[in-house]
Amino acid sequence: YTWPDLAYDYVEEFLWLELTGFAGIPAVCAPSSGNPDGTTPSIQAQWLRTAYHDMATFNAGVGGMDGSLFFELDRAENIGAGLSNTRNQFIKHISKYTPIPDLIAAGAVVAVGQCGGPSLSFRPGRVLAAGPGPSGVPVPTGTLAQHTAAFQRQGFTATEMIGLVACGHTLGGVTAVDFPTINTGSAIAPFDDTRLFDNHIATNYVHGPSVNPLVNGPAVSESDARIFSSDGNVTMQSFASSASTFNSTCATLPVLERMINTVPTGVTLRDPVVPIPFKPRDYLLSITPAGTLNLQVTADIFGPSVISSNRVVTLHWADRQSTKCASGACSAAFISTTSNAALRNGNTLQSYKFSVTVSAAASFSSFWFTVDEVGNGATVTTQNNGGGNYPVDDLVVNVPAFSCGFFTGAGIARITTAV
Ligand code: HEM
User: Which atom, in ligand 1's list, is nearest to the CA of 175?
Assistant: First the structure.
């Protein structure tokens, strides 16, 4: 990774730093333990089902994760307020770098992780379909032969079908309002006895009692029972006897990762977006009304247990002609620090904000940071973008004092930017 990389930076900040609040929508996988209460929908379950329904119509290189689902919500196979709720949540997060199908895939990653499931990797690069695609999401009244053929069309073997359905149906349940003949009881008939992403979908099934309405319901719609027993229960028994087999099948085999990475021919996914432990963010070089140059940047330190009140982070820079900083005077302390201890996968973030102003004649050519972990000078490391420093382009500079933007009418804005 070399800074700046606008597409990577945006997605990293979206997914790991949670800067747009996406991962905060389903706040917790609540109740985090114990029985589902039968009334509270699970946002995580809705997000995971959304991903499957988008992928499920994939056929010979056409369709897959392309967001076409949101053009297809009026189809009977896509019944349920969960899917339209999800669309309404996701559209607020559309950006140049996070189109709808990437949001659907990221939603599955977030949902599985938040409920205690495996950490799935997220590769961006999906492309939104121009409109609805073919139909073909499996329905509970389908026969085993129909389901096996549908999963084969989606790219999964008969055994992988068992894994994919179990990995999906460990979350959520069947709603009475949409499937009144399957769920004749409370609002939501859960698939297993916890709301977590765990192997209880298998332990309940193998050892009983299974509350799963697609296992113990009207025979015509017992699709889970038909699928789970299709190999003589071998796969479900392996899941029931080992939580780690279940988790690794869902992730590493990887049925869920393959599900979200099933894209139309011609679409190439980018590398997985991994968190960058040290990265500049919110960089802005601008001209002040006084004619001086101001550089603002925030240094993010990310990972488990990174929050520290002792750490000293210092910004250093080289001027444009590289003459004025010879004395080493070109450095500055941060003006504020903020921290967030509640990010995905047990990660934390501490951010250090800098703002320095120099004469236009001196300007900046690059910057870097030193990090003194305990603040006593004993362990100082340098963060310099892999050796080349973080570059500054001072050829075209923004002038915020003479820039403005406002709405002139519904959905119409006038933006004036001075450079
Ligand atoms: C033969 C294949 C499948 C059939 C027939 C099927 C059927 C169903 C049905 C009838 C529901 C209830 C929906 C509602 O009441 O809103 C449901 C929910 C769900 N399905 Fe499937 N499903 C299949 C495969 C999958 C797969 C492969 C996944 C994901 C990997 C998945 C994920 C989910 C999730 C998470 C829910 C719970 C949604 C919620 O609680 O809001 N399903 N499924």
Answer: 15
